[in-house]
Design brief:
heterodimer, A: 513 residues, 74% helix, globular, B: 509 residues, mainly alpha
Chain lengths: 513, 509
């Protein structure tokens, strides 16, 4: 099994034409094929956990790619990427099984959607398991094209307009990332024969330490801005509500669940773990200010998202703004990155942030699938016209409530533990950096707001007397229930037994830097 | 063993002879009742196999003789070959220059010319009257271009270049519509002005140096204390060649010419003449006027020209409704991206340039070929393109993937080209230029996305079923495969380019 990661990376790519061919005959078969491919990929990734070694633990597979540009096609996994990839693939399985009945009879032979979904999966997997900047960027941009066509081709109201906004926003972010990659390529200097576009090598040899300081500042800021757009952090969030609420439900689930979290992953992996250490060596004050800025942006985003979610009535917009708010939590967690690592304990905040990526993906994915179920059954999206659905759609009501309570941080559901870890990390950091006192207090208040909009959301949709439009509602077909139940089970399992993911993530962090 | 005059001139002579023969041969084929398609393909294969063989022979002789050195083959008094790094004779006059870059370009041009010719054979009906001249002109333009890139002095370059630029007017004129006649007139006026500027500049340079050879001129510039006359001369030469490369503000002929020409001509001009003119600018600026040795600091000027070109072309494209003109604007914008790389004068930049010649050439050829198919169905403006994605899926797919390469999307070849170019700009501390470059790239993505939205989102304006021409799709999909292969495995091309560039920088005057 010397090239298990290569197989895992190539499997979705090879499957693309087959999904197209199968999809021309039957959408259902195509969705099962996608689910199968994703399932095999999950098994492959679980197997890699055994192969990890070293401190921090990781498993690396280097291949030759473009020697002239000093670039290797290096695949690697550590605890962080394995956790995120596994949850991504679980979401892909749920979304693909969910899709055929969701789109209904009209799309019985819809090869396009499933082909694009498979392409998206290939791009997503690639983003999380490579350590090469150029290949990372390949996947990063490659995701955009299928996402554009899915939102445009299968979305609601004015889909291509929404897709255009999504595309241009994220593309602008991406080109700044490209500029920064160019700068890293030029200014990283290490021992001979070492690739200067490899994230792991740059970390290992401190290859950016001798780069000019203002260049480093710019690289850090541009990377953060570029990934921040994808993550929809406050000043650059404007694309998210439209894209997430107008996309078809399976796509919304993937967008909100993992595509925006890819931004968070990239900030952790590239800005914090790769570029920031070099800044710390040269200019500690700037590094500190940078983290404080991230923290403030996180708080503003968290509040902004939850305030607007509190007043919206459109079922999907509430969830979309909730996603913005939760990206704020993750950003806050990432800003707890320790400047002076002194042992395992300092990584609690970061562990929490990564775990929140995982738990939020499952919960938000399920929430979007559930809203898709409700919309496909009732063909309305205004929560004011809904009510009393708990009795009419018991399965949907159960799964939605599970996801929503998890989002609100209610124990023993998944998001509770990740939020708890983020706050523990913040308390830990207060002892060394008094700046974090007020931000932590504010974040705790934000959690209350998030509970508020979630309760309002559940109460309006599922409880109270049935309204005219909801009287004849029936529960969704089996395959859609099945997709939702998978995610609900994942949420409950992580909530009861988070140790698996916490251990996995912490093996990637302790002894880091 | 060494490269002789015969080796260098053989591709040019072969192509010229075959071009002359094409007229009677196609005429003969037309008169036959049966099997004329097969005969046409046979003639095509014969011509290009011979042409490619002569170019390969040149490359073979060159790499056998020396691995990475420039060779100058003088014409008078007797044909002699000099290797630049070993013996350095005092002064050269008219000569051919063979170095890895010119060999790379020669191979590139012959191959791209072959693919476009394949498309033209189906797009231009050879049963109609002047078709044989159309094909002959295509061959002779290829011959002249190979002559121009193998030229070792500014005069030989000028003669061959004007030969190809003049002959191209016939390709634009071919359909003889009022627009094409007007466009050809405009084009001819522009290149006549351009060539008079060049001749004036060359006469000044000859007056100062007593020679027009690249090597001699470059050596001489370094030693002259007062460079103002030189600068004046090179401003004239550059303005002339910039007109032919369509650098803004000298670009206006290109739009009309491309819009009025048949699609195969537009593809041919954009992928060969355009790339050739960038090559000449590269030769003049980086080879002769290397800032370190010539003492002339032209980088900022070119950077500003590049900025204007990128911004004007991309913004104008945003408002353009005619799809063929839209792609003409992309051609102009590509000039801007090439100039970024030339500005940087470093290895990444020239690598980027050479990669751009390949990636940009095949992408633009592909785009015009697709547009040619659409135009032949009467689909011209963005309004006509509505819903066409569902009516003509294969052509549309090729167009979408090909044009994403323009905007620099991985995994297409255009991405690697742009990545190299922007990296080079950062390296040469032109960070602002790189920023403008990526911003205009975003604009490029914008208008391409607008095009896709029309193609896929809107309801079709044409109701009846459309049959896609299979024959025309063959060369298009060949190019599409090339775009993917060079995008995912750029090492295939970089293996050739990197030694070329190292050699290019090894020579110091």
């Amino acid at each position: 099994m010397g090239n298990i990661l290569l197989i895992a990376e190539l499997l979705p790519i090879i499957a693309i034409p087959f999904v197209y061919l199968v999809g021309r005959k039957s959408s259902k078969a195509a969705s099962y094929l996608i689910a199968f491919v994703a399932f095999v990929d999950i098994i492959l990734f679980v197997l890699t956990v055994q192969l990890m070694s070293g401190s921090p633990q990781r498993y690396v597979e280097p291949y030759n790619w473009i020697p002239s540009l000093n670039t290797q096609y290096t695949l690697f996994v550590d605890g962080i990427s394995v956790s995120i990839v596994i949850i991504t693939l679980i979401l892909v399985i749920a979304s693909s099984i969910f899709s055929p009945r969701y789109f209904g009879e009209k799309h019985r032979k819809d090869a396009g959607f499933y082909t694009l979904l498979m392409m998206l999966t290939a791009g997503l997997v690639g983003v999380f398991i490579t350590s090469n900047f150029l290949f990372f960027y390949f996947n990063w941009e490659f995701m955009l094209i299928p996402a554009y066509f899915i939102i445009g081709g299968w979305g609601y109201s004015k889909p291509y307009k929404t897709a255009f906004k999504f595309f241009i926003f994220t593309h602008i972010g991406a080109v700044f990332v490209l500029l920064s990659i160019g700068a890293v390529y030029l200014f990283a200097s290490g021992p001979a024969g070492v690739s200067n576009l490899d994230i792991l090598d740059i970390q290992k040899y401190g290859m950016l330490n001798n780069a000019p300081l203002d260049m480093l500042h710019w690289v850090l800021i541009l990377f953060t801005a570029g990934f921040g757009v994808k993550m929809a952090i406050f000043p650059v969030h404007a694309w998210l509500p439209d894209a997430h609420s107008e996309a078809p439900a399976p796509m919304s689930a993937l967008l909100s669940g993992v595509i925006i979290s890819a931004g968070a992953y990239a900030i952790l992996r590239i800005c914090l773990q790769t570029v920031l250490p070099a800044v710390i060596v040269n200019d500690k004050e700037f590094a500190k200010d940078f983290l404080h800025l991230l923290c403030l942006l996180g708080i503003i985003t968290a509040f902004y998202g939850s305030f607007i979610a509190l007043v919206r009535n459109d079922i999907k917009r509430i969830i979309a703004y909730s996603s913005i708010s939760h990206m704020g939590y993750i950003m806050f967690g990432l800003s707890l990155f320790p400047i002076q690592p002194v042992g395992a304990i300092v990584w609690i905040g970061i562990t929490g942030a990564v775990l929140h990526i995982v738990t939020h993906a499952a919960s938000k994915g399920l929430l979007f699938l559930s809203s898709g179920s409700i919309m496909s059954q009732l063909e309305i999206r205004d929560t004011r016209e809904m009510g009393g659905l708990a009795g009419k759609m018991p399965w949907t009501a159960t799964t939605t409530t599970t996801a929503a309570l998890s989002i609100a941080g209610v124990p023993p559901l998944a998001c509770f533990f990740s939020e708890l870890l983020i706050f523990l990390g913040a308390f830990q950091l207060i002892s060394t950096d008094s700046f974090y006192i007020w931000p932590t207090v504010l974040m705790l208040i934000a959690v209350i707001f998030s509970l508020a909009y979630i309760l309002r959301f559940i109460a309006r949709i599922f409880f109270g007397a049935p309204k005219t439009k909801t009287e004849n509602a029936k529960d969704v077909p089996f395959s859609m229930k099945f997709a939702m139940v998978i995610l609900a089970i994942v949420i409950v399992i992580i909530g009861i037994y988070p140790t698996f993911f916490i251990q996995l993530i912490s093996t990637a962090l302790t002894g880091g830097m | 063993m060494t490269v002789t005059l015969l080796d260098v001139t053989l591709p040019i002579i072969t192509l010229v002879i075959l071009s002359v023969l094409t007229i009677p041969v196609v005429g003969f084929i037309r008169k036959r009742q049966h099997g004329n398609k097969i005969l046409m393909v046979a003639w095509y294969l014969f011509v290009y196999v011979l042409a490619i063989l002569t170019v390969i022979n040149l490359a073979w002789q060159y790499y056998n003789a020396s691995s990475a050195e420039s060779m100058i083959i003088t014409l008078s008094p007797t044909p002699t070959t000099y290797t630049l790094t070993s013996t350095t004779p005092p002064i050269f006059s008219s000569a051919f220059l063979v170095d890895p870059i010119s060999i790379y370009m020669a191979v590139l041009f012959v191959v791209i010319s072959a693919i476009v010719f394949l498309y033209a054979m189906s797009a231009i009906n050879f049963r109609e009257k002047p078709a044989e001249r159309y094909f002959a002109v295509m061959l002779i333009v290829t011959a002249c271009l190979i002559g121009a890139i193998l030229a070792g002095d500014l005069l030989t370059l000028f003669i061959f270049w004007e030969g190809s630029a003049g002959a191209v007017s016939f390709l634009i004129l071919y359909e003889k519509t009022p627009e094409s006649i007007r466009a050809t007139m405009k084009y001819l006026v522009m290149i006549i002005i351009a060539s008079s500027l060049i001749v004036y500049g060359l006469s000044i340079i000859f007056g100062i140096c007593g020679s027009l050879n690249y090597w001699t001129v470059a050596q001489y510039i370094g030693t002259v204390p007062d460079k103002s006359l030189f600068i004046f001369a090179f401003v004239l030469v550059t303005a002339g060649y910039a007109t032919e490369a369509a650098v803004v503000p000298f670009h206006s002929w290109l739009l009309d010419a491309y819009a009025a020409a048949p699609a195969s001509s537009a593809a041919f001009i954009a992928s060969l003449i355009d790339q050739g003119s960038y090559y000449i600018i590269l030769r003049v600026f980086v080879y002769i006027l290397k800032p370190a040795s010539s003492g002339i600091n032209w980088q900022l000027t070119v950077a500003i020209l590049s900025t204007i070109t990128m911004i004007v072309a991309n913004l104008a494209a945003l408002a353009e409704r005619n799809v063929k003109r839209l792609f003409a604007y992309i051609c102009i914008a590509d000039v801007g991206y090439n100039l970024i790389a030339i500005t940087s004068v470093d290895k990444e930049g020239i690598q980027g340039n050479l990669f751009f010649f390949l990636a940009g050439g095949i992408t633009i050829a592909l785009a015009f070929m697709c547009v040619g198919i659409f135009n032949s169905m009467g689909i011209k403006t963005l309004n006509d393109f509505r819903g066409i994605g569902r009516k003509m899926p294969y052509t549309s797919l090729a167009l979408v993937i090909g044009t994403l390469s323009f905007a620099g999307f991985p995994p297409m070849a255009g991405f690697i080209a742009k990545y190299l170019v922007f990296t080079a700009a950062i390296h040469a501390s032109f960070v602002w230029l790189a920023v403008i470059g990526v911003c205009t790239s975003v604009i490029q993505a914008c208008y391409l996305i607008i095009l896709y939205t029309d193609m896929f989102a809107k309801e079709p304006t044409i109701k009846e079923h459309i049959k896609e021409p299979r024959k025309l799709l063959v060369p298009i999909y060949v190019l599409l495969a090339a775009i993917f292969i060079f995008g995912i495995f750029p090492q295939i091309v970089l293996n050739f380019i990197v030694p070329v560039v190292n050699q290019f920088f090894a020579i110091s005057w």
